[in-house]
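Researcher: Good morning. I'm working through a list of sequences from a screen, and I'd like to move beyond sequence-only analysis. For each chain I'm collecting a predicted structure so we can compare shapes side by side. This is the next one on the list. No need for commentary yet; just the structure.
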Amino acid sequence: MLTACRVETRGVPVAFSRATIDKFEDASASIVLRQIDRAFTGFGLSDDPGGVLGDRRVRFRQYVASIDQSDAEQRARLGAAFGALVDAAASSKEAFLVAAAESDGFAYVDGAFRARAHRAPSEHDEIASLDECGKHLLLLANEEPDRAMAEATTALVSICRDSLRRIGKEAPDEILAVDDMVRVTLDALADTPTGATLVTVLLASARSPVGGATKEARFVVRTTMAVALYVAECTDERLRALGTSR
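Model: Good morning. Structure tokens for this chain:
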């Protein structure tokens, strides 16, 4: 099953996604319990957040739940633990698990997952990232239309918040409807009235229908990601006018 992509925003640390953690949990079901304990040596055990039953899965979830990925040291230790689980898992699963972690921005080095050293992203990197995300979501729409539409909306809101941060503006604390979030962002970017009107029309045509068919979902994804690309381009244009890049 395809999993939705994650749009990387500037200044956000690399972390293992929920989708990747779920893949490692699935793999843990066939790993001896003592090997799971050995992989997570030094970690505490938290309450099981719930999920598929099974002693090995529960133990895995308890370990992961005790980790704060916003802490660089704990995130590095989790990368080492996941590396040990790759070694303990069946050889047929190695490539699958490594690919999942690599998609989150990690490299498999010396038996552990380490965050890749990134150069400062350019505007071209961000546009390319959005383009790749859009392609992935179109594929996801073939299997899970509602999820693809929801993920496209999440990506758009994420880009808006990052755009506000890059031009030195505070993102709204309250949760806004996506249309309002885009409007606030474009106002801050001093977008042209014509551009803002065009975006309003696009968003109005891309209302996510619950239980939408694949064709409808692909239309919503294309339209929503087109707005995200427009916001990203407006942000780069604004930063060039200000003579800065963030």
